Amino acid sequence: MAGAGSSRREFLRWLTVSGTGVALAGLLPGTAVAATGEIVVITRVTLIDGTGSAPRHDVSVVLVGDRIAWVGGSEQLPETGAARVIDGRGKYLIPGLWDMHTHGADLEEIVPPLHLAHGVTGAREMWGYAENRVSRDKIERGELLGPRLVLGSGIVDGPVTLLGPPVIQVSTEAEARAAVRAEAAAGAEFVKVYSYLGPEALRAVADEVRDQGLRFSGHWPYKVSHFEASDLGQHSFEHFFGVSIHCSTRRDEILARLRAMPYDPAAPRAFFTVARQLEFESVSTYSPHAAWSYFNRLRRDGTWHSPTLTINRVVTQPAETHKQDPRLKYVPADIRESWAVGIERFAPKTPSEIALQERYYQETLRLVGVAHYAGVGIIGGTDCLNPYTFPGSGLHEELAFLVEAGLSPVQALKTVTGDAAKFLGRERTSGTVAVGKEADLVLLDANPAADIRNVAKIDLVITRGRVLDKTARRRMLDAVETAANRPPTTSARLHALAGRGCCC
Fold it and tell me: 3-class DSSP state for residue 79?
């Protein structure tokens, strides 16, 4: 034991004096983490670091506790002593993935382990409420194994809404400001706005979040244009709603029609149905000039897009498309039933509807590529827990769709690693493989830069420095399947979300 301790101290000493070593609290010899935290060394791996750079070969990475302590050429690495060594030859190391549009973290036996088992070590929860704040706090205290969570506010919408409780409905500027203050006090890290929020209330939200040191993201509020919302500071638009309209020669006509059309409290979906139909039809009047003007405006304002292609693909296909998905064994029976009912509300049915929505989806893919090459920030997210949108593995689908849209595999990975961290303001601690960053990593058996589908070929996941190898991940998935097949215990809120949806 003395020899092992001495070897450990020598290796830590080398870390501090090497040219790329660390001088971070908790990593130096004599500190608590250095004394007790596991040292993990991944050797001779091909590194795809999340910056968008080309893969680097024969790299070694040293982790001490929950931080990356050293990254460099394998030839520089000395004897590792008592460290745990993971042979990375023939494997590929990427940062832990961020799903930037998720729901359901409080379904604790299902959603958090599914994320981690598939390499999703961080998630942006897009509907904050008391139960998932509790789950986030359990994860932070180490009582629940799950991804890092960035938690939004409750959804802020107008006096007419498509949603049920706990949606926050506001009619006036004063109510909107009060809602923002209350959600900030409850610990929201950003405010989420929704489709039927009125112009005056939206402006009040925008003003109040600045005062609270927060930002706001969410749906396109239909009564204002994307230009107006972007100018007000909307940080991201979710689901690509309204993009085809803003890239259409009919843009001004359609926006004027939507502004003039009232929301009907007796039939709240009527407005949404009309708006979606206008989106589907607007792809036939695409204007390259309008598109470049639109995307350049968003780029200048610093507004990002979260296209959630995974859920968009589901709801633009016939309902039976996904009903035999083998991943359904990881979904509780009551949610499966809600999905089967809910998808019937959204999916196209007649041949003409199927053709129209397929054309819309293909145009959405193309416009995501246009947005990317115009310099608009893109973040990858799934909208998981909506019908047939699976936690964890859904993000692998999202990456494949982004590549189909025209991003390279390395660029697609960047949307859920380095760019995700930049969007969240976490670029100093997360998103890339660099000294001092959080030890959230995924080791792959095949090269995702050659084929993005290889992101699903996971050898192991490292979350907060904890190594989840294939055996551990298999046990996690088996436990999820067991939990999913117990008698239903899903909360009414999650059950409603699964059936009604948050995005549609």
Answer: coil
Token duo for residue 422: 């930049």
Q: Are the CB atoms for 410 and 65 separated by under 8 Å?
A: no
Q: What's the confidence (pLDDT) of residue 24?
A: 44
Q: Is the pTM of this model over 0.90?
A: yes
Residue 220 main-chain phi, psi, to 5 deg: -75, 115
Using DSSP's 3-state secondary structure scheme, residue 17 falls into: helix
- In one letter, which amino acid is 166? P
Which pairs with CB-CB distance under 8 Å and at least 24 residues apart come from 269-273? 269/162, 271/196, 271/222, 272/162, 272/195, 272/504
DSSP state letters, 272-340: HHHHHHHHHHHGGGB-HHHHHHHHHHHHHHT-EEE--HHHHHHHTS-GGGGTT-GGGGGS-HHHHHHHH
pLDDT at position 75 is 93
Looking at residue 80, what is its pLDDT? 81
The span from the CA of 57 to the CA of 45, in Å, is: 6
Tokens of 394: 């859904």
User: Tokens representing 197?
Assistant: 């929020």
DSSP structural state of residue 248: B
pLDDT at residue 487 in the model = 85
Q: How many CB atoms lie within 10 A of CB 211?
A: 11
Q: Is 468 helix (H, G, I), strand (E, B) or coil?
A: strand
Question: Among candidates 140, 146, 145, 154, which has minimal Cα distance to 122?
Answer: 146
DSSP H helices, 316-383, are: 333-346, 351-373
Distance CA 68, CA 53 (A): 19
What is the spatial distance between Cα 255 and Cα 369, in angstroms, rounded to a whole number? 24
Question: Checking DSSP bridges between strand 97-102 and strand 120-125, what pairing results, if any?
Answer: parallel
Rounded distance, CA 313 to CA 388, Å? 10
Asked if 173 and 200 touch (Cβ cutoff 8 Å), the reply is yes
For 257-313, the pLDDT digits (tens) are 999 999 999 999 999 999 999 999 999 999 999 999 999 999 999 999 999 999 999
Paired sense of beta strands 168-169 and 148-157, if any: parallel
Could you tell me the maximum CA-CA distance found in the chain, to the nearest angstrom?
78
Count CA within 13 A, CB hemisphere, residue 504.
25
φ and ψ at residue 395, rounded to 5 degrees:
-70, -30
CA atoms of 332 and 116, how far apart (whole Å) = 18
Angle at 374 between CA 368 and CA 380, to 5 degrees: 40
Q: What is the DSSP letter of 287?
A: -
Q: What is the dihedral of CA 213, 301, 307, 56, to 10 degrees?
A: -90
- The residues of the chain scoring below 50 in pLDDT are 1-3, 21, 23-26, 28-36
Pick from 229, 233, 238: which is nearest to 101 by CA? 238
Q: Is the dihedral of CA 222, 226, 231, 236 positive or negative?
A: positive
